[in-house]
Amino acid sequence: MDTLLYPLKFKPLFKDKIWGGNKIKEQLGFDYAAMPNCGEMWSLSGVEGDETLVENGFLAENSLNEILEIYMGDLLGERNYERFGNTFPILIKIIDANDKLSIQVHPDDDLAQERGLENGKTEMWYTMNADSDSEIIDGFATAMTADEYMAAVDQGTLTSHLHVEKPQKGDVFFIPAGRIHALGKGLLIAEIQQTSDTTYRIFDYNRTDSNGNLRELHTEEALDAIDFSPTKDGKTHYEYKKNSTVNLVECPYFITNMISLDKPIKKDFTSLDSFVVYFCVEGICAIKALDNIVPMRAGECILIPAVADKVEIFPENEAKILEIYIETSENTKYTSHTHDNDIYVSFDQNSME
Asked: Contact, 172 vs 124, CB < 8 A?
């Protein structure tokens, strides 16, 4: 196919949430209509009914899924297209937690499909900003049985059994499907996840909606989804390196790297059969691929089609970006193992540097 593809930037979608605030406007500079509690900005989405539209070039105003249906493997990568078809496999958000989010859990693929849902939901968080007293919940502090968990839910003591972290700017947390979790107040988070909007709400601090009704809980639905093992250290530990690619997360659903740069760098994706998403989390930069240059600032992302072999990144002063793709080459050999209840997936691949 004469692809005519180019780096694609998308118009974000804004979501009103009871726990949201105004950091997406005040700190990132995005303007949205009168929305008192903007909790989420979906920067890249193929979720049906919530698809982001292309902002730049001749494909402007087409949705992500419309483009995928036309360009298929040229956009997604041939093996990714065999695996995911016309569903774009990842969803990218900014979350403004002005108040505590509900304590929740997501099912894995097997349970989701058993219940007639398309996907489970594994996700990761990159902390763009955090108040000094911000907290997150990621798993249980000690191992629990299902019966002990239900007793704690019934007695209203669940929060005393949960593992709490105090995130700081730059911290990364990997949240596999099945791990109970919640964002606390005062956090601005970049989230990368499977394309799924399935959430089982376990506890919501007895908050009411605009009509004074308690929000729905999914106690029974969540029970089969929960991993009851404890979390010792849920933070992803990585080494900060300037002008280099540093791996943050590897799992079957996405691979995420951090690139912190103050000078131009070049990337070679000749051996990678995948799209690449660049998601800016700090500063301003420009991405060059397929003879096109597209600017990007914090909160924006650019989708590089799989047919692009070479990419150049140009920062304005300093910038930090997340690099996201899915590796499904024929030679990939996934080896799952656990450490402190995180699921890691290692694989053999050529260096992307």
From this structure: yes
- Residue 275, SS3 per DSSP: coil
CATH architecture of the domain with residue range 8-236 = Sandwich (2.60)
Question: Lowest-confidence range among 94-98, 196-200, 316-320?
Answer: 196-200
Query: Residue 76 belongs to what H/E stretch?
Result: helix 64-76
Residue 8, φ and ψ in degrees, nearest 5: -105, 125
Nearest residue to 155 via CA among 214, 100, 203, 208: 203
User: What gap in Å lies between CA 94 and CA 138, rounded to an integer?
Assistant: 19
CATH topology for the 244-346 domain? Jelly Rolls (2.60.120)
Ordered by start, the domain boundaries in the chain are: 8-236, 244-346
State whether residue 46 is helix, strand or coil.
Answer: strand
Q: How does pLDDT run across 106-153, given as a tens digit for each residue?
A: 999 999 999 988 789 999 999 999 999 999 999 999 999 999 999 999
Cβ-based burial of 299 (10 A; exposed 0-12, middle 13-18, buried ≥19): buried
Q: What is the pLDDT of residues 174-224, one digit of tens each?
A: 999 999 999 999 999 999 999 988 899 999 888 877 788 888 889 999 999
Which residue would you say has higher pLDDT here, 118 or 249?
249
How does DSSP classify residue 237?
A: P
Mean of all residue pLDDT scores within the chain: 89
Rounded Cα distance, 106 and 124, in Å: 13
Distance CA 351, CA 267 (A): 10
The single residue of 83, 201, 207, 215 carrying the catalytic annotation is 201
Dist CA 299 CA 32 (whole Å): 14
Q: Annotated catalytic, 201?
A: yes
What Rg do the C-alpha atoms of the chain give, in angstroms?
20
326: exposed, middle or buried (Cβ count in 10 Å: 0-12, 13-18, 19+) = buried
The answer for residues whose C-beta is within 8 angstroms of residue 203's C-beta and 6 or more apart is: 102, 103, 153, 158, 159, 217
